[in-house]
């Protein structure tokens, strides 16, 4: 029990927070009642404006109201306005700060919320923070969080126990700094090799994805039966079919606003979510793109994005799967897609304030989009903070207050389940101890090494059990890591005993003026002359060096012209230089298996069906490939 501005009540010798300042115990303040009872009482006391504010999931901003995550503090004056005037009680944080500072800033957010009329605490969400890949608006890195392989790496390792262990550690770290919701995991299937968001998935097999997602949800939420008081609400995404994007063009972008799932190809995409439902996931986030050529129960799917689609949300989620949790829209689905959203140029590149994802409903007004989304089944709208369109929709009769009450009650239940109404604060001094836990950091790095996939090992070059004093030529690796292993780093391949070349899957920047297009990996997957890693491999081969080609598989790379030049091909899904060297030396054995196939050519990629997993002709490395040593 903790308060900063509201008094503590004593009733029958028991302490309560007097959140409404009435001086008497109100049912929603009574922690002896169930979350559902407390939520019903609270919603009955809220004004229409407070209810509508609860349906908005806004962004915490840095100094001056900016979206700059390099700042180590929030703009609390801007937040005060959001809470007092707009009645917002859910926000995403993208702050990257040292653990104690991060915790203090999130406590300051809760202090602002506590001063509101009813003292409704803030739910603070975050994109994933415990991996390697950073994409602005989709993930974060830094700030002392333990660093694990991407979800693809956890899938490569194939151990649901490790997934649950990771999620449990991440849960402790999130709660230590005051984050109570994770906008993850991705239950999307990795079916289109060029799609840039595959690192966040658990691969291409719906049964594997389902099991991994279930373990992830249970670990984050603190148990198998839903959200616990010390848990973190998981928002599984993106319901459904998000990975089936032609040419891999992502749904954040206007040019990626469609996914195509002909026939029954959507069924595996649905099945990948089963584990999340079994673990009683707290939230679902619908996908961005309009799903084309889909027929459900004999009816063509309405050509609007899933967040506006009654068939996807009411019929498939609520009715067939009996889902009772929160449905949170992805970001900016109600915003207007202006000229620079549709067609940015070098002179006018798309900026963050030009981003919109209102696919299938762009011709509607904002008021109509909010109404359509809420009536289709959304409970909360991501990335927005203006309540006026929803208030106008209510005034104009496009939505009812009873429908709003349903969503607000779900949102408030989640806050009560987390214990936020009784104590939303964390102890900053403990945050650095939890985030800096040596055992957790060591386990994360061990898993980075284990999750690597040995694809080729000519002459049993690995493991190099004895490397002390050996001369190595490096490309793409920090020499300090190699020196720490006892290797002698040389600058001339002719002087080396062997080479280590770190690489990433090739990509192109096909849409440089789009906000996300300029940040995402698109286009080709094959190595060509001029690619630095490929040129380094050719140089090592010309020098007669045995070579280790260690590649980050954020997408399924085409290695056809690599395997004839490299002695060892070692795939990873997020690994430090130290973890790569651990696998090379056998200090920790790589024991992963590919969570998706690696195609043999770009022609095979272009001819495969984006909705179907592992269907390219004659893949170079089939799904499940992986050697032992």
Task: Record keyword descriptors for this entry.
3 domains, TIM Barrel, 13% strand, glycosidase, single chain, 8-stranded parallel beta barrel, Glyco_hydro_3_C_sf, alpha/beta, 32% helix, Rossmann fold, 629 residues, 20 helices, 6-stranded mixed beta sheet, globular
Describe what is shown at a glance.
With 629 residues, this protein is α/β, with parallel strands linked by helices. Helices cover 32% and strands 13% of the residues.
Secondary-structure class: alpha/beta
- Continuous helix count: 20
Number of strands: 20
Helix content: 25-40%
Overall residue-averaged pLDDT value: 96
Query: What global shape is seen?
Result: globular
Query: Which spans of ≥5 residues are poorly predicted at pLDDT below 50?
Result: none
The total domain count is: 3
**CATH class bucket of the largest domain:** Alpha Beta
CATH architecture of the largest domain: Alpha-Beta Barrel
Q: Span between N and C termini?
A: 54 Å
Rg to the nearest angstrom?
25 Å
In CATH terms, the superfamily of the largest domain is Glycoside hydrolase, family 3, N-terminal domain
User: What is the makeup of the main sheet?
Assistant: 8 strands, parallel, barrel
Estimate the strand proportion: 5-15%
**CATH topology of the largest domain, what is it called?**
TIM Barrel
EC number: 3.2.1.21
Family: Belongs to the glycosyl hydrolase 3 family.
Domain Glycoside hydrolase family 3 N-terminal: 47-412
Organism: Altericroceibacterium indicum
């Amino acid at each position: 029990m903790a308060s900063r501005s509201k008094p503590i009540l004593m009733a029958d010798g028991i302490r309560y927070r007097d959140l409404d300042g009435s001086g008497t115990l109100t049912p929603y303040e009574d922690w002896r009642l169930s979350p559902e009872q407390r939520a019903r009482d609270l919603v009955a006391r809220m004004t229409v404006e407070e209810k509508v504010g609860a349906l908005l999931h806004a962004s915490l901003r840095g100094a001056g109201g900016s979206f700059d995550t390099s700042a180590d503090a929030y703009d609390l004056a801007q937040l005060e306005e959001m809470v007092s005037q707009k009645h917002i009680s859910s926000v995403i944080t993208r702050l990257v700060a040292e653990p104690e500072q991060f915790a203090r800033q999130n406590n300051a957010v809760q202090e602002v919320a506590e001063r509101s009329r009813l003292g409704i605490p803030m739910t603070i969400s975050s994109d994933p923070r415990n991996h390697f890949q950073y994409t602005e608006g989709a993930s974060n890195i830094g700030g002392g969080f333990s660093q694990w392989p991407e979800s693809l790496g956890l899938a490569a390792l194939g151990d649901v126990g490790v997934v649950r262990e990771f999620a449990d550690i991440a849960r402790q770290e999130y709660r230590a700094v005051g984050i109570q919701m994770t906008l993850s995991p991705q239950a999307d299937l990795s079916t289109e090799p060029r799609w840039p968001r595959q690192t966040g998935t658990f691969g291409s097999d719906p049964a594997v994805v389902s099991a991994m997602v279930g373990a992830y949800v249970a670990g984050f939420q603190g148990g198998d039966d839903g959200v616990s008081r010390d848990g973190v609400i998981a928002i599984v995404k993106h319901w459904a079919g998000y990975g089936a994007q032609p040419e891999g063009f992502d749904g954040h972008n206007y040019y990626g606003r469609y996914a195509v799932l002909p026939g029954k190809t959507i069924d595996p995409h649905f099945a990948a979510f089963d584990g999340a439902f079994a673990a009683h996931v707290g939230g679902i986030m619908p996908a961005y793109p309009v799903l084309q050529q889909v027929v459900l129960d004999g009816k063509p799917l309405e050509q609007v994005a899933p967040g506006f689609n009654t068939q996807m949300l009411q019929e498939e989620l609520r009715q067939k799967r009996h889902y009772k949790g929160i449905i949170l829209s992805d970001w900016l689905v109600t915003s207007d897609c202006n000229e620079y959203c549709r067609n940015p140029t070098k002179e006018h590149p798309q900026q963050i304030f030009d981003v919109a994802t209102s696919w299938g409903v762009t011709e509607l007004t904002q008021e109509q989009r909010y109404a359509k989304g809420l009536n289709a089944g959304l409970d909360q709208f991501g990335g927005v903070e203006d309540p006026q369109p929803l208030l106008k929709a209510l005034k104009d009769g496009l939505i009812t207050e009873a429908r709003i009450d349903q969503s607000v009650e779900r949102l408030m239940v989640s806050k009560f389940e987390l214990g936020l109404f009784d104590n939303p604060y964390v102890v900053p001094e403990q945050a650095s101890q939890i985030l800096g836990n040596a055992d957790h950091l060591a386990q994360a790095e061990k898993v980075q090494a284990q999750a690597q996939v040995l694809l080729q090992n000519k002459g049993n070059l690995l493991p190099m059990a004895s490397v002390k004093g050996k001369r190595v030529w490096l490309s793409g690796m920090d020499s300090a890591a190699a020196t720490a292993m006892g290797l002698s780093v040389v600058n001339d391949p002719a002087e080396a005993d062997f080479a280590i070349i770190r690489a990433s899957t090739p990509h192109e920047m096909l849409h440089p003026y789009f906000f996300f297009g300029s940040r995402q990996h698109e286009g080709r997957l094959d190595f060509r002359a001029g690619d630095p890693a490929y040129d380094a491999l050719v140089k090592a081969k010309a020098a007669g060096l045995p070579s280790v080609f260690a590649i980050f598989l954020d997408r399924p790379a085409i290695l056809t012209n690599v395997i004839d030049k490299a002695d060892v091909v070692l795939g990873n899904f997020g690994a430090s230089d130290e973890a790569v060297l651990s696998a090379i030396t056998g200090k920790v054995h790589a024991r992963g298996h590919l969570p998706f196939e690696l195609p043999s050519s770009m022609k095979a990629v272009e001819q495969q069906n984006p909705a179907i997993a592992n269907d390219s002709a004659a893949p170079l490395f089939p799904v499940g490939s992986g050697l032992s040593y």
